[in-house]
Each structure stands twice: as structure tokens, then as C-alpha cells.
Amino acid sequence: MIRILVIDDHPVVREGLVASLEDDAEFEVVGAAGSVEEALPVVGARRPEVILLDLELRGMDGLAAIPVLTAAYAGARILILTAYDTDERVLGAVRGGAKGYLLKGVTLDEIARAIRAVHAGEIYLDPRAATKVVAGLEPGRRASGTLSRREREVLRLIAGGQSNKQIARTLGITERTVKFHVTSVLNKLGAATRAQAVALAGQRGLL
């Protein structure tokens, strides 16, 4: 079961999200708050694995809150759910450590998919947000350094259509380790999906 904390300063939105998420047997909503200040005691006490975070909040805003929330519990993964998709917000959230970025108006099914993805260690970006992340990178520039030898191996196997389980078997490592490498590859390439990572790697001569 995935433990979730919802932070949104609109009571109707917050209550609607909580009610909808609690209908899924895979999710446990451990708390809901209207501000980061209200949320911090819950983070420390209930240790949510995924924090659904709005960016426009009273008190501390969402961008500033990302490192504060993860410092309160290192196991928490931040999934942004907001109405704002400016370059500054999207890039600021991703660079700040958010693992996902959704725009309000998405379906509940997509929110659920995003929660499962970030909980599994993946990056999940709304297509509009992904476009801004890629556009925010200088041509040919990696987001955070070059790929390691192991990351290149994982990338080549992804390009070959292998799943995480197949990659783990091929390389003789755990599936959890594969997920870590996949996330690192996506981050370094500035990609939102595995397919996009392969495409970008091909453009940069990494395959």
C-alpha cells in the first residue's frame, strides 16, 4: 500500500483528491493539509511515500517546500499537481527534486498512474511539462553530467525493448538497481519517458 499526503490550500480540491484516492485499495491517505507548515508534522509522524503537492500555497510556496519536505522524510517522493505550467515553475520543481509534475485537469486515472510511477522510483511528467524540461536544456547538454558505463548498458537494453526485469536478469543485478539506473538516465538526458531517453540518446550519439 502506498502512503500518500495531499497538500493543497483549496479545501474542495483537497477533500476531493482524498476521497478519490481512498477509493483505490492500493493507496492509503495518511494526511491532508492546506499548507506546508501544517504538513510537516504529518510528514515526520506518518512518513508518506508520495506527497501530492500544489505549488500555490499560503505561507511557504511549493517550490521552496520541496527540499524542506524531503528533508523531513527522505523516503518521500514529491509529485506536483498544479495549475501552473510556466518554464520557471516546471524547471524549478524538477531541479528542486520533484519526481513528477501534473497539471490540474488531468484524470484521476492519470494521477493514480503518476503516483505509482514516482513511488516506483520513476519520473512522471505531464507532456506539456516534459516539453518545457527538454526545452530548458541547452542543445547537446546533459542535465547532470555524462552517463556512466552501467547507465549506458542499461540505456542500450532499454533501446532493445527490454523491461526492467529483463535488464536485471541480463546484467545480473536487482530490479531495484535497474530502476535506480533508469531514473538516473532519464534525469541526465532530461527525458520524461524511456522512449524519449532513447530518442535523445540517439541524437547525441550515445547508442
SSE blueprint and pairings:
Blueprint: E1 2-7, H1 11-22, E2 27-33, H2 36-46, E3 50-53, H3 62-72, E4 77-82, H4 87-96, E5 100-103, H5 108-119, E6 124-125, H6 127-135, H7 149-159, H8 164-171, H9 175-189, H10 194-203
Parallel strand pairs: 1-2, 1-3, 3-4, 4-5, 5-6
Which structural traits does this protein have?
2 domains; single chain; Rossmann fold; 53% helix; six-stranded parallel β-sheet; Arc Repressor Mutant, subunit A; 6 strands; alpha/beta
Describe the structure.
The chain is α/β, with parallel strands linked by helices and 207 residues long. It folds into 2 domains: 2-135, 3-Layer(aba) Sandwich (Rossmann fold); 149-203, Arc Repressor Mutant, subunit A, CATH 1.10.10.10. Helices cover 53% and strands 14% of the residues. The protein has 10 helices and 6 strands, in the order E-H-E-H-E-H-E-H-E-H-E-H-H-H-H-H. The protein has helices spanning 11-22, 36-46, 62-72, 87-96, 108-119, 127-135, 149-159, 164-171, 175-189, 194-203; strands at 2-7, 27-33, 50-53, 77-82, 100-103, 124-125. The protein has a 6-stranded parallel beta sheet with strand order 2-1-3-4-5-6, sandwiched between helices. Helix 8 packs across helix 9.
